[in-house]
Amino acid sequence: MLVASNRGPVSYTRAEDGTLSARRGGGGLVSGLSAIGPEADALWVCAALGDGDREAARSAQGRLDTGDTGGQPVRMLDIPSGTFEAAYHGIANSVLWFTHHMLYHTPLEPVFDEDFSGQWAGYEAYNAAFADALAQEAADGAAVLVQDYHLALVPGMLRARRPDLRIGHFSHTPWAPADYFRLLPDDVAAQVLAGMLGADRTAFLTARWARLFAECCARVLGATVEGGGPPREDAAPEGLSSDDAAPEDFSLTVTYEGRTTHVGVHPLGADGDFLRERAHRSDVADRLAQLRDQVGTGPDGAPRRVLVRVDRTELSKNIVRGLYAYRRLLADRPEWRERVVHLAFAYPSRQDLAVYRDYTAEVSRVAEEINREFGTGGWTPVVLHVKDDFARSLAAYRMADVALVNPVRDGMNLVAKEVPVVSDAGCVLVLSREAGAHEELAPDVLSVNPFDVRETAAALHSALEADPADRAERTRRLAATATSRPPARWFLDQLEALPG
Ligand code: G6P
């Protein structure tokens, strides 16, 4: 079996003493694959992302044994930096990510010109490098699981090189409705879809994204779509409707140029066992004590309420509107002043892109503005942490009275599933109806339109006022739903569902 993704399960950095040290990454795929263990006999093919990775890849001719980080063997591809930049920053993160999350400010963006053509050629070359490596590594009839929007062309390219392989593709992002997806140049839109249809099976985190993908195949390629029910852009707000099949039974096929690709749904859940154990280690207890000190007590001597958010500082996570909603709450409901603290953890991401740097600066600016406007000598309304610290995130999950997860669009969002698992005394989840997790969690959350700051502020108020017993009961139900498809099962389900 082979797994292919842009970001691999480990990253290498050169330490001060000159040695290369490996760090294991997180995420569903890493835990899914490592839960199966070495007997899976899997090779993970990924790109060398930084200087440390490149050095490690060169010194081992690309093939790394990551046993010391608890992982599977990895082959890191040392892709020429110009090609990598064009593919990763230029196309994957600036065009495909923006399309799938509908992030463009369309009066000025996107512009598809000569620069774009050059970047697209880089994306093709980068996908071809993966297809070559996979074709070279795969045993006869092996299963190859290709991940995400970075590698949309790989299934088609790999099938052309190795028709014997069983090829799966998985999208960790949402998918855009055809009217939006078609802002891509026609040839590029067609290449992305046809590339993914090179797989025997292409899967998504929710039925909503799967249907939208099929709708794009029908509209852009003229492909034949069968099953899955009609594409419904509004499928998420009420959660899974009664006519929705369970993800296991979801059945949809797309036939294009004589080949049929199955389209599946696999909602990734939280890793309950790991999280519960990890959240009770001593480093988390230390962080909990520090955060309790920071939060402090209100004028009545009672501990202040805690509103938590934890995200990559990612445009789609909607952090700035979340802060606007909190500001609205403090302005409209003065009774909460001095009695609540917003722990906002926003970890830098994709800082090579100017638009992400600007967004990161805007998050800080608005947080400071709120603190200037409402803060007092003994009360800081927003405590913004930007240094990634998993133990501190878990401590915040444990103590949260309310968690705000308000992305404008999100494939799943695991924070929404992790908080209820770890919560000490129950936590009210204010959740965007545009997050994939909403399809499963809707019955026990306060749902919001992520663009409506007034509604979000009102939801924060209701959440802060929630009855503790009701809150604890809902949290228990959320935790059960959130952990029903842990990463190992999610991964094995995909493997078993691969036809052939
Ligand atoms: C999303 C994508 C992943 C990606 C991650 C972090 O979750 O679906 O493929 O690895 O973001 O983004 P980065 O650009 O840092 O890899």
UniProtKB/TrEMBL annotation:
It comes from the Bacteria. CDD domains: GT20_TPS. GO terms for biological process: trehalose biosynthetic process. Residues 226-245 are annotated as: Disordered. GO terms for cellular component: cytosol. It holds the Pfam family Glyco_transf_20. Belongs to the glycosyltransferase 20 family. This is Trehalose 6-phosphate synthase. It comes from Streptomyces qinglanensis. The lineage of its organism: Bacteria, Bacillati, Actinomycetota, Actinomycetes, Kitasatosporales.
